[in-house]
Specification:
elongated, mainly alpha
């Protein structure tokens, strides 16, 4: 379940490779989808928390960007 949520979130964030994300399947990619889903959910929780934890928000924004970049590289090289 988390893997498919991660795939859909990445398809929204990365429209240029949406077609690749929709069609590709592999264990490595599934793990990236799941990791992205967990990181994006945590980021949303941190953003809605009061008081805001800006350091955690920044760390998870960076983590999400890194996963996005890793997915792009993986999809374009396969």
């Amino acid at each position: 379940m988390s893997k498919e949520r991660g795939r859909r979130k990445l398809m929204l964030r990365l429209p240029d490779i949406r077609h690749l994300l929709a069609n590709k399947t592999s264990e490595a990619l599934a793990e990236m989808f799941e990791s992205y889903d967990l990181a994006a959910d945590a980021l949303e929780r941190f953003r809605s928390k009061n008081p805001r934890e800006d350091k955690l928000i920044s760390e998870y924004e960076q983590l999400c960007r890194e996963i996005e970049q890793e997915v792009v590289v993986y999809c374009k090289n396969r």
